Amino acid sequence: MKYSLFSFVLMLVTCSLPAQSVNFYYDRGVEKLNDNDLAGAVADFNYVISHYPDYYEAWHDRARAEVLLRQNDKALADYSKAVEINKKYYEAYYHRAELNLKMGKEADAINDLAKTIEIKADYLPAFELRGDILFRQKNNEKALQDLLAAVNLKTTNYMVHFTLSKIFAGKGKLKEEADELDKALDLNAGCAECYMEKGHLLFNSEKFKEAIVCFNKLIELRPDNYKAYLYRGNASLRIKDYAPAIKDLSLVIANDRKNEHEALLSRGIAYYETEKFPQAERDLNKVLQTEKENFTAWYHRALVMYNLGKEDRAKLDFSEALRLNPHCDDAYFKRGMLYYNRKKYDLAIDDFSKALKYNQKAEYYYFRGAASFESGKRENACTDLKKAMNMGYEAAKTDYSHICAQ
Question: Is residue 287 part of a domain?
Answer without folding.
Answer: no
